[in-house]
Amino acid sequence: MSNKILSVRGLSRIHGEQCPLCISSTGPEHDTNICPHCGSVVAAHDVSFDLYRGEILGIIGESGSGKSSTVKMLYFDDMPTAGSATFHDGDARHDMFALNAAQQRGMRNKRFGMVYQNPHLGLNFQISAGGNIAERLLMSDLKHYGEIRTRAGDLLVRTEVARQRMDQNPRTFSGGMQQRVQIAKALATQPPLLFLDEVTTGLDLSVQAAILDLILEIQHELGTAMIVVTHDLGVIRLLAGRTLVMKHGRVIESGLTDQILEDPQHAYTQRLVASAL
Amino acid sequence: MNAHYELPLEDAGYSFGFLDEYAKKEVRRCILKAIAIPGYQTPYASREMPMGRGFGTGGLQLTLSLIGAGDTLKVIDQGSDDSVNAVNLRQFVQLTCPGVAVTEKTQEATLIQSRHRIPEKMLTEQQILVLQVPYPDALVVVEPSEARRKVMHGEADYSRLLVKLYEDVVRFDEITLSHRYPTRINGHYVIDPSPIPRWDVPKLHQSPALVLLGAGREKKIYAVPPYTLAEPLVFDDIAFRVEDFRDARGQRIACRCCGSTVSFLDELIDDAGRVTHQCSDSAYCEEQQEIHSARKQA
Q1: What interface predicted TM-score (ipTM) does this complex get?
Q2: B257 catalytic per annotation
Q3: Do A130 and B170 touch (CB under 8 A)?
Q4: Does B167 touch chain A (CB under 8 A)?
Q5: CA of B151, closest CA in chain A: separation in Å?
Q6: Which domains does chain B have, with CATH numbers?
Q7: DSSP tag of B260
Q8: pLDDT tens digits, one per residue of A245-274
């Protein structure tokens, strides 16, 4: 059994009608991701990487660079126009985009977890915090009320939300707590792969640090592989072992995080690192 | 018009059963499809009926498409044969279906159209129960988009309904749905079994009679075929339970008319302002009263 959990090859997403010149006339060297010939938006093109068990991969880039698009495709929120992704689940291999809708839903509910920047995307604000976690447990076919209660409570305690607040609506929670509930929800089915899309953006610094600590603890404890999307170099430095740098829909640099931060090769990365320091 | 087929027009200008033969044929085809896919909401071209939508047009179209000269019809509304809606529907069928007998006795009927109740008396293989449905889709409470609901039904994705039940148990320590209890048919589709109380849901399970549900406004027909699984959605450790008719001392309340302690009761307030209970199924109640008076005489 290889240690690989996800291998992505040539993943592309183009919004719009597409013409043969779309690819050759966009990208960092053209300083745009909008095709000047047909107006299509090349959100991501030819994204390839491997992810190993328990590893945290960072994807960094400015707004509109395609980092969120990449993760959305892998979480089946959006379908790619080209490319493939293979999910290694134990000894089984799944060609993710060849699965039917029900299989994709099953994989999303049971094997993946997602934490969005905006808690409104990841949580249902009509129901209690515990209900949100119950929803994911119910989706993975756990139908025992007592067990759902216990597990939801434990997860909230694990993510440092008081058990007494379990039956309250997440609307009444602070931003940091909402994010913790989202993490608890994502972890409910103990997925081997977790997607984190700008999880600390918009939180104050001390809360950011606490959330990042929590993420690292979870990774150590459960060995969950993660893909962390962010535009914050600090988050990348703290969490990610390897990093992809994206600009205008392309991966312009990839490698060990330390290497990228200490010795950036691409001009954009150099600027990015210089501006942060 | 088809030259080979003459509509059997009556003097009044209506064909037997008010609906024209083509309309009845379409409804019958949808009924067959609904039976073939238990619990699936079959779309059909709900006709304009001479009554407001929401007054049982879905059930009436099913009844009129199924009824023939040899049939005996019973119509119930809220368990009673004598309420306004039931009387009107019965008269309409009598008017437009000459030769059809009507009855109030459950065991005599071959076709029963009902709203809110399934008769107390066990139905037989020879009978068809037609239920009028206001809201056919059980998922409507958790998903507003019909397109997405269809995908959810196709994939048998009902976890969000269970989340609703979970929230109920969290807040009230029990499931508080009084009627329209989501029920899974034949292990796949979850239906809204029309506004029947929880009391009647177990009667759908392995019912010897065919149960057809028609929603006129929402243009859907679905079915619980005879001897089919009908399981209310529940958690593994919280059993489904029906209405509890025990008083404060734990005594089962009896019907004030017939004294039955095994029927579904309606709560009434009498002229003196006291709370009393009475069988919801009027035909059952009358039968029990007759049995009692026969015993007294003997």
Answers
A1: 0.82
A2: no
A3: yes
A4: yes
A5: 9
A6: 21-140+180-232 (3.40.50.11310), 244-298 (no CATH)
A7: -
A8: 999 999 999 999 999 999 999 988 898 888
